[in-house]
Amino acid sequence: AEMIKKRPKSTVTAVAWHPNNQLIAVGSCDYRCRLYSAFVRVVDGQPQTSNWGTIKNTGELL
């Protein structure tokens, strides 16, 4: 949780991983879904390109 740069301001109610394990979607009680980068270079190797652009830093809000 410390790596998330722009945290949700309300209670998180849902979390879902993208199949490539480099994106995570977070739903919360403020009726928003936030998409974060979960990319870790030593684990994932090279960043993959997605519909939301190139995945760069861990915890970045896309």
Automatic annotation (TrEMBL):
Q: Which Gene3D superfamilies match?
A: YVTN repeat-like/Quinoprotein amine dehydrogenase
> Which SUPFAM superfamilies does the record associate with it?
WD40 repeat-like
Superkingdom classification of source: Eukaryota
Gene Ontology cellular component terms for the protein in this record:
Arp2/3 protein complex
Q: Where in the cell? A: Cytoplasm, Cytoskeleton
Q: Does the keyword Cytoplasm apply?
A: yes
What is the protein's name according to its record? Answer: Arp2/3 complex 41 kDa subunit
